[in-house]
């Protein structure tokens, strides 16, 4: 009975907060009228409903997304039904779909196991080599394997095996460290490449849609690598210091007594080499060709067709049906909502309301810090980073104009803050998968996640002024 009451209370509190925010922000008369027009007020009501559905999940993801689209039409916020679905016309949705299918193919033929075997061979005689080598691999692997989830699933058996090889207990300090690396650092590291998952893809697409910049693979890589890798190194140092202080392991160093060491065997078949060569050619196409000449979506689409040919039969109907179509609905709906916020002026009005919390006569540095804290808090309440960037991005563009910071610089700031929110397991899929193993405790997750998020926020602020 107590659990039922607690669950109801958890659902009621956000509703009370939402009602209070709506009352204070939407309908207060400041002497010259309310902050927002009637249409903008309805748009913000819809935004609050969407945030509540995505955070509290009172409905299945697909049903909640359809409800948001239905309310968009019922509130009269779009001129036609087709306008409500304009977010589903974005090529970014289909790029995410293509990469998800290709990542499954990558794992299907054992390329992942081949890489895991090489790392195991490199680190089998030295714990220090393993501790150093694992984060290096995680930071470099997004260039080859875009999906963070695929990388996690590829490396989890490896770190489990290494933990047993070194004679540690299941919840050892080494095992915790490894899970944090393939969970948290994996998520942070994936942001350095455009192809490093849907979140990066969505951000690059938004930069184009809002005429900020048409950025290529190499340019994006050079902009993000220094801050992301420096931040990752600092997080790893913090992580090691914390886990070393908190850990109380008894280590068996006699590796010869362990007769349960797993071996990794991969058959280097024609399909294996076809996938490896195909992925290499796709990545080279992204790096070498301008996107106006070869659109980002074209290489993965062609590669899917090649892998589905009868002689290879790597992409099947079952694989297509197994795609996360609920997430597809959520992203498409988020796109539509983000476009609506920009087109009817709601994003600009919200930016001006946010500016009320920032002293007008203060420096740009203070404004950026305050804005970063606002984004940090907003991101905390979003489960999916892709949804957060889509909803927040139009606000960022308007805010950049108000404080005199370049659109690209402030966009990258928000991208890093949103992408590195790691406090709760639900903030990113890889962190959730690591937490679900039972190796990581709630206390460790919260402390390291909070410190990691704050470190990356600080790095993003410094990068805005010193690098971007």
TrEMBL record:
<feature type="transmembrane region" description="Helical">
    <location>
        <begin position="325"/>
        <end position="342"/>
    </location>
</feature>
<dbReference type="InterPro" id="IPR001898">
    <property type="entry name" value="SLC13A/DASS"/>
</dbReference>
<feature type="transmembrane region" description="Helical">
    <location>
        <begin position="41"/>
        <end position="57"/>
    </location>
</feature>
<feature type="transmembrane region" description="Helical">
    <location>
        <begin position="220"/>
        <end position="243"/>
    </location>
</feature>
<keyword id="KW-1133">Transmembrane helix</keyword>
<feature type="transmembrane region" description="Helical">
    <location>
        <begin position="12"/>
        <end position="29"/>
    </location>
</feature>
<feature type="transmembrane region" description="Helical">
    <location>
        <begin position="88"/>
        <end position="107"/>
    </location>
</feature>
<feature type="transmembrane region" description="Helical">
    <location>
        <begin position="412"/>
        <end position="435"/>
    </location>
</feature>
<feature type="transmembrane region" description="Helical">
    <location>
        <begin position="127"/>
        <end position="145"/>
    </location>
</feature>
<feature type="transmembrane region" description="Helical">
    <location>
        <begin position="177"/>
        <end position="200"/>
    </location>
</feature>
<protein>
    <submittedName>
        <fullName>SLC13 family permease</fullName>
    </submittedName>
</protein>
<feature type="transmembrane region" description="Helical">
    <location>
        <begin position="447"/>
        <end position="467"/>
    </location>
</feature>
<feature type="transmembrane region" description="Helical">
    <location>
        <begin position="272"/>
        <end position="289"/>
    </location>
</feature>
<dbReference type="Pfam" id="PF00939">
    <property type="entry name" value="Na_sulph_symp"/>
</dbReference>
<keyword id="KW-0472">Membrane</keyword>
<feature type="transmembrane region" description="Helical">
    <location>
        <begin position="295"/>
        <end position="313"/>
    </location>
</feature>
<keyword id="KW-0812">Transmembrane</keyword>
